[in-house]
Amino acid sequence: MKTRAAGLCCVVTILMALVSVAVAKDKVSPPYGVLGASVGDEVVLVSPITGHAKPLRTGPVAWLFPAPGGILFAPDLVNGKTTVIDLRSLTVRETIPGVTMPRFGSASDR
Question: Which structural domain, as residue segments, surrounds residue 66?
Fold first, then answer.
């Protein structure tokens, strides 16, 4: 458990450093929104402005699929379920039995 927490802390630190370098380079206002990362059995949502991290139990997720309306699909191929995350409230909206890997728009990875 300590290894996972240390790994999560390392991922968040790296992401925050990359965001701050990009902001300083372009001299634009700070980014807004949420960064999402799949770590172990959780999806961790991080605010790039405050650094606040919120882990959500989803099971092991390989790919995250953003959807219109501030929704994120997190399919768990091991346990055969999909967690639907609301990025506006930073909560799990629902868990769908079965794996859902949605495609949105012209991008082949969404």
Answer: 2-97
